[in-house]
Amino acid sequence: MKPSSRTPRTPRTALAAVTLTLAVLATACGSGSDPASTEGKADGKPVTLTFWTWTSGAKEATEEFNRTHKDIQIKFSQIPGGPDGYSKISNAIKAGNAPDVTTIEYQALPEFVSQGDLQDLSDLAGDTVRNEFPESVQNLVNLGGKSWAVPFDIAPQILYYRKDLYEKYGVEVPRTWDEFRSAAEKIKKAEPKARIASFGTDAMMLAALSWQAGAKWFSTEDDAWKVNINDATSQKVAEYWEGMRQGGLVFDYAPYSEEETKSRLDGTTTSILGASWSAGGFSVNMPTLKGKWAAAPMPNWGTDASGSYGGSSYAVPKGGKNAEAAVEFIKWLTTEPDSMVARIKSQTSPSSTLPANPAMEKVASEAFDTSSYFGGQDLYALAHDQVATIPTGWVWGPVQSSVKIKIEEVESKEGPPQGSRCGPGGSGVHDQGPWSEARGVR
User: Fold this and answer.
1) Are residues 268 and 416 in the same domain?
2) Cα–chain-centroid distance for residue 382?
3) Euclidean distance between CA atoms 357 and 389, whole angstroms
4) Domain span at 351
5) Distance between CA atoms of residues 103 and 86, nearest Å
6) Alpha-carbon distance 255 to 282, whole Å?
7) Residues 355 and 367 sit within 8 Å (Cβ to Cβ)
8) Would 14 be classed as within a structural domain?
9) How many CB atoms lie within 10 A of CB 404?
10) Per residue in 29-76, pLDDT tens?
11) Shared domain check, 129 and 160
12) Which region, left, alpha or beta, applies to residue 288 given φ > 0 means left and ψ of -120 to 50 means alpha?
């Protein structure tokens, strides 16, 4: 695909002061908070639970649990990630055949809670959340004073780059976004078919980059949700990437597309905007490039900072028959070293996730083999250092899926949402449509 040729335009310098306020239902956090079921079998047979996820290495972790546990057995099902996976989970909950345990990313958790689709795990897992995870991570799963899930991983942004191509084109690893643009210009000049990276239609990447820059898309005020995607910080980020596209300095391949993968393999894409979890797929998807990739902190705006690009938790959907057994499995997944070792040692889908549990981070670091593919670089030490730079105060709201859909709808047509598209009468993410209903969680 050729570099983006969208029609250039001048972003507004004065942004529309539009902020959408969502009323918070007093019962929003209680709609799905019936006492967690502890129903089990009294015939001496193992309790069988269903587990749905898309995460790397989860199948191997489940097999290890089944091998070492007699009283509980897990039936594993691989489901798609993203909107398709969440639709599958939501539909199963509505139909009364939800899985007993499932993965919910942090940005999706408030919406599932607000719809009453999850069981309140405060009694069964509240102490685990409180004692095993940093407060910043606790805040991602504790909503309305209740624990709705158990954290699994955190996902600081990481820049992956081709060491050999950077050297070939005389490019230093960029530390700031200004340096990134200069490097992009240098690469394009040296090899007209090559680009520094691809920036496709990816609302979560745009969110992570805005977070890194200090934006806060959601907040609460006077017991109401407020959406502030149109702030100056977010506009700065959107304008930067629109400029990169208009200047033909990045590709705009669809994320995870065949085009994107081919460009990485043939060397026309020289860097990847990723996260800690991205590293696990390199050896599987690009085995012939062993030793040629390295990782660095994401470029920033002048102050060390990383956004969070992903991150997930384990929850018990509404309708599960044995939350006690489900939580036992969840605790094993998030706090037991054997779980992390099995996950990372997967040969078909190795994981490089950074555990949210500090004790598990050391286990993961020791288990993940970087000596061959990444030339011995300690990726976990790098990711660990980036966590400390993630700006505080970011909150995911109860309508993030609607935000994601609208952003990607606009971006696929016109580029990163900004200016007139986000203001009154524009096509941007402040349209009130799906957000006009009063629903949410505090």
Assistant:
1) yes
2) 18
3) 17
4) 47-154+311-367
5) 9
6) 15
7) no
8) no
9) 20
10) 334 445 455 454 546 789 999 999 999 899 999 999 999 999 999 999
11) no
12) alpha
Instruction: Assess whether 344 and 399 both reside in one domain.
Output: no
293 and 331 part of one domain: no
The model carries a pTM of 0.82
Higher per-residue pLDDT: 367 or 292: 292
Q: Is residue 275 located within the same domain as residue 162?
A: yes
Same domain as 256, residue 325: no
Q: Calculate the alpha carbon distances from 382 to 214, 304, 354 in Å.
A: 21, 13, 11
Q: Are 90 and 117 in contact (CB under 8 A)?
A: yes
Tell me: the pLDDT tens digits for 171-213? 999 999 999 999 999 999 999 999 999 999 899 999 999 999 9
Q: At what angle do helices 232-246 and 203-213 cross, to 10 degrees?
A: 120
**Identity of the residue numbered 314:** Y
- Calpha distance 2→426 (Å, rounded): 28
DSSP letter string, 200-250? -S-HHHHHHHHHHHT--SEEEETTEEEE-TTSHHHHHHHHHHHHHHHTT-S
In a domain, 423, yes or no: yes
Contacts of 322 (CB under 8 A, 6+ apart): 37, 38, 39, 40, 47, 49, 100
Are both 103 and 129 inside the same structural domain?
Answer: yes
d(CA 402, CA 7): 26
Domain count, the chain: 2
Task: Please indicate, yes or no, whether residues 180 and 278 belong to a single structural domain of this protein.
Answer: yes
